[in-house]
Design brief:
The protein is of the alpha+beta class. The protein has 4 helices and 9 strands.
Length: about 180
């Protein structure tokens, strides 16, 4: 059974956040009024990612090595100058349809096969051939308890906020 989190309802923007009862996943989706290729660029090019991939009110620095085995590094700097840095490694890229990545230690330079068990594996899918594109973010956790802990810490809210920031950015870009 899938349910929408009671504290994260679909808002007027249409962002949906779901946590199936029997699966350790979060599914976040939204339809944007923009072509898929433009949204792909926003998700894969650092200047665009730095404008929406995170909470409001933080300075965002992003580096991307967009290839299987390449690292995606994001650093958020809050107004109090505290930082939060996270790193991911791309597992699969199929432009402009989807990319899959998993968490990895910051500064990782080794082969994928030597990484510890992933905490999360995320698939970002873009679907649409016309003026509208559905973006789906599917995050696979090891356990339901880990997923629920991340939800309580605001993970899904941060992604939904990022979707709102992306919508603003797309408007500025003329989409």
């Amino acid at each position: 059974m899938t349910h929408t989190l009671p504290h994260l309802p679909a808002d007027s923007s249409g962002t949906m956040v779901e946590t199936p009862d029997s699966e350790p996943i979060i599914r976040i989706s939204r339809v944007f009024r923009a072509p898929r290729q433009l949204i792909w660029r926003c998700f894969t090019e650092p200047p665009h990612l730095a404008r929406f991939w995170g909470p409001r009110g933080v300075a965002i620095r992003v580096t991307v090595d967009l290839q299987a085995g390449g690292v995606w590094l994001t650093e958020w700097t809050y107004p109090d100058r505290k930082t939060f840095t996270f790193s991911s490694i791309y597992l699969d890229i199929r432009a402009p349809e989807r990319f899959v990545y998993r968490d990895c230690p910051v500064g990782w330079a080794g082969p994928i096969a030597e990484l510890p068990t992933p905490r999360t594996v995320t698939t970002v899918s873009l679907a649409g051939a016309g003026p509208d594109t559905e973006v789906s973010v599917l995050v696979q956790f090891q356990t339901i308890a880990e997923r629920d802990g991340d939800v309580k810490r605001g993970f899904a809210t941060t992604v939904a906020t990022g979707f709102n920031r992306l919508a603003d950015q797309l408007l500025e870009m003329g989409a």
